[in-house]
From TrEMBL:
Residues 1-276 form the RmlD-like substrate binding domain. Pathway: Carbohydrate biosynthesis; dTDP-L-rhamnose biosynthesis. This is dTDP-4-dehydrorhamnose reductase. Belongs to the dTDP-4-dehydrorhamnose reductase family. It comes from the Bacteria. It comes from candidate division TA06 bacterium ADurb.Bin131. CDD domains: dTDP_HR_like_SDR_e (cd05254). Keywords: NADP, Oxidoreductase. The lineage of its organism: Bacteria, Bacteria division TA06. GO terms for biological process: dTDP-rhamnose biosynthetic process. Pfam families: RmlD_sub_bind. It is an enzyme of class 1 (oxidoreductase). The gene is rmlD. Coiled coil: none annotated.
């Protein structure tokens, strides 16, 4: 069996690639396959002839996507278009990782797979367009929506926050953006199982429970026995560091995933494990 992981050098990709034998997996990165360049994608696919493709590569900076929508569009839409075309040509099964940011956040209970997406941000819009391309082109696919992923060497806020707090750096942090934190290790296990079963359709995966960013930060302070006053809570209305509109509440309902695969553990237990074993 041959597997391609696009974005294999990213936060999730690094965990996922470890789940496969080296001989089975091709870790695609910008160096060996720029997904926005069709000839580069075509070359990698014809050379590998993958049975399965995990399409993780994306322009993931939500705020920079507002500043540079053309780049977000090029990577997340044209890039995904290239992957979907080649996967369909070679009859590969595709797992496309998408986001809770496809929702507008107006619900007050967790979003299920059947809720209608209505993204607020450029990033969310381009990821939703990616979902449509994958479901439109590929005969065998699964779209996996996840949220607020944290893990080792991640460049996103959820991964960097524990390092900053551990170094006692003061942080201003929002209280009114709620979703479900997800450990990249758990997400990778979920993606691996989905791939093994060749599940087709749309699935949510995140750790169970939800919190706002302030609560996430407080949990980290508590774990390290740090003074919680390191965190200054603020409403998103007064927070000028982020420019993209984000859903106020975008927790994901994982009952379908739990029924088919395994019960995701709570975000607190997953975060504890991450802090204990992966943050030195
Ligand atoms: N992290 C989250 O909180 C989160 C939440 C929901 C959904 N997701 C989705 O999960 C997936 C994985 O996210 P992540 O956190 O692992 O992202 P990440 O750490 O930002 O990694 C993104 C990867 O995509 C690669 N990439 C970007 N542009 C590319 C291009 N033109 N050609 C080839 N590769 C390119 C990057 O390579 P370089 O290192 O060379 O730039 C990097 O390896 C993404 O599809 C994201 O939308 C993430």
């Amino acid at each position: 069996m041959k597997v391609i992981i696009t974005g294999g050098t990213g936060l999730v990709g690094r965990y996922l690639s470890k789940m496969f034998d080296d001989k089975d997996v091709v870790i695609a990165s910008r160096n060996n396959c720029d997904i926005t360049d069709f000839s580069s994608v075509k070359y990698l696919f014809y050379r590998t002839k993958p049975d399965m493709v995990f399409h993780l590569a994306a322009f993931t900076d939500v705020d920079k996507s507002e500043e540079n929508p053309a780049l977000a569009l090029k990577t997340n839409v044209s890039g995904t278009n290239n992957i979907a075309i080649m996967a369909d040509k070679l009859k590969s099964y595709v797992v496309y990782v998408s986001t809770d940011f496809v929702f507008n956040g107006e619900k007050t209970s967790p979003y299920s797979e059947n809720d209608t997406p209505n993204p607020l941000s450029i990033y969310g819009k381009t990821k939703l367009e990616g979902e449509r391309l994958v479901s439109g082109f590929c005969k065998k696919y699964c779209i996996v929506r996840t949220s607020r992923v944290f893990g080792k060497n991640g460049r996103n806020f959820a991964s960097i926050l524990p390092l900053k707090l551990k170094s006692k750096i003061k942080i201003t942090i929002t209280t009114d953006l709620v979703n479900s934190p997800t450990y990249a290790r758990d997400l990778s296990k979920a993606l691996f199982e989905i791939g093994r079963e060749r599940f087709q359709g749309v699935l949510n995966f995140c750790n169970s429970g939800w919190c706002n960013w302030y609560e996430f930060g407080l949990y980290i302070c508590q774990y390290y026995n740090l003074d919680p006053s390191l965190l200054t809570p603020i409403s998103i209305r007064n927070f000028h560091d982020s420019t993209a509109p984000r859903p106020a509440f975008s927790a994901l309902n994982t009952s379908l995933f739990s029924k088919l695969f395994f019960e995701p553990r709570s975000w607190q237990i997953a975060l504890q494990e991450f802090l204990k074993y992966e943050i030195s």
